[in-house]
Amino acid sequence: MNQHVTIAEAAHYDKVRAIFAILNGEREADLLLKNLNILDVHGETVYHGSILVYDKRIIALNPDESILKVKEVFDGEGLYAIPGLIDAHIHFESQLAHPTALAEAMVPCGTTTIYSECLDLLSAAGEEGVEAAQKLFKDYDKLPYRLYAFAPGKKTAANVTEAVLKMEPVIGLGEFEHFTYSSGNDDDFRKAAWVRAQGGFMNGHWGVTALSDMILNYLPAIGCSNNHDVWNEKDLEKSVRYGFPTHIKFGVGSAEVIKVLLRAIVDRKWPTDNFMLCTDNISIERLLTMGHMDWIISLCAEMGINPIHAIKMATLNTARSFHMEDKLGSLTPGRFADIVLTDSLSKINPRYVFKDGELVAKDRKLLTNAEIDYSGMCKKGVPGLADLTADQLDIVPLEISEDGSKAKVYLFDVYGRGHAKFYQEVWVPLRDGKVVPEVDGVKYSRLSVIQRYANGKRHIVNGLFKGVSIDRGAVATFWPAPKPYFVVVGEESAEMCHCVKQVDTYAGACIVTENKVEKAVMPLDIYGVMANMTVSELTAAAGSIDAALEAMGNRNEGEPVVNKLLSLFISLHRFRLMH
């Protein structure tokens, strides 16, 4: 070899020589998976065969076993082999778990790759945003899933975004802030310029039918790479027409939305190559009880999408949209050996999950995980509610009827996230000058949205709440991004005030109180947005919140209460209800 060959070139030379030798029976491969029904996502067929793995990648389909030398042979039991599943868009903070805890719940579902936002964590970290990113991504390559991340396109200072764009495993710019990019904000121009110069990706954000024609053209024109913020058929139509690789999402509080979107795809007969699958926001509870991309694929099949097309929407389509189809998304030579073995294609049941050719999960249990200490990211609370008084949480009518019998107030709906119905002005009874918390005879709990650190008069919004209903006591939580605010749900102002002040002693937490006695607490010590817990500890804490509320009359369905409450902050920001 030439003496000027670089170290990298020499390493690749050794690799290609090794692969040649393995396929000629002269060297050992790492793993042979036999007796498989392999899904060919390119040809949309299934064939019986075997897969040969060396150095984390697939190097052969149906190799000549008569000459083969291999370290390990795995019997696939006649199961279907499909590519490792991919979540095209997930927020790291949404499930409240740090990266290794997330692995415990997610990888057994067959997910081997995620494209992740981290904007809320870095926004919560404030001036420590760059340091927080470094700690978050520490040893990311040791995780039992493949991580690609995005620098924050909103909620953080431009200098934080610029620094994070240079880190691994960051591949582009995360969600833009609609209220700034639509007004020609110079920081957004700079962020877009930085990622364009790097040849990275840009995540879109905002339901496309809510965009002006100018902005709808502007985003793809500057290189916006995808769109995950679709809520209805019209959103899908425009997203496809304007060339966005479009993400169909399941998020907290939007169980019906994904069905609306899938019905539209089936009814309109749109080519499924336009679509990828993602979660956006998800709870650990849902991962453990219903699944992840495996469940969404199964739902697609149930809604009438060809099962193979549904699998492609969580594998090859996503890999192609991020220009990584040479690495991910299919079971073909040269791709990473990320493989899921399932007994069905229409109802995904991940029996075995391989990442880089290593068996990492079996029968819904994680077998191997990274050991990463995140305690250095835990923070102490900085209280800000010392001067808050109970009367500030009383509902003051927006308007009173002429006869004085009714009051107009806000009604917030946890299931209305992303829609105009998230908050509405409704008429309720007014008796003896006090608001009666019921609409058309249906009783609702009260909700207060409270600014943590006041500069002058504290910003507080009070109203009624649809989504968490309790007969007594209170529950409160906190979210620091992009602005530090609390939400508290209850029946009586003094109890609500006490409960939220208990949360104020933590960096972040969800707390239930009754008669001013703490009944359950779930600390979120990592910058107020993540719990420094294992999955079992995290689910136990979330379960204790639900159990305490159930004892106080809460009739909860679906996601844990803590996740429902935290999902509110997305819409509170979107509808400009935080100062």
From TrEMBL:
InterPro entries in the cross-refs: Adenine_deam_C, Amidohydro-rel, Metal-dep_hydrolase_composite, Metal_Hydrolase
Domain annotation Adenine deaminase C-terminal: ranges: 425-559
Q: What is its EC number?
A: 3.5.4.2
Coiled-coil positions: none
Give the Pfam families listed for this entry: Adenine_deam_C (PF13382), Amidohydro_1 (PF01979)
Domain of life where this protein originates? Bacteria
What are the protein's UniProt keywords? Answer: Hydrolase
Q: Does the keyword Hydrolase feature in the UniProt annotation?
A: yes
List the PANTHER family hit by this protein, alphabetically: ADENINE DEAMINASE, N-ACETYLGLUCOSAMINE-6-PHOSPHATE DEACETYLASE
Q: What is this protein called?
A: adenine deaminase
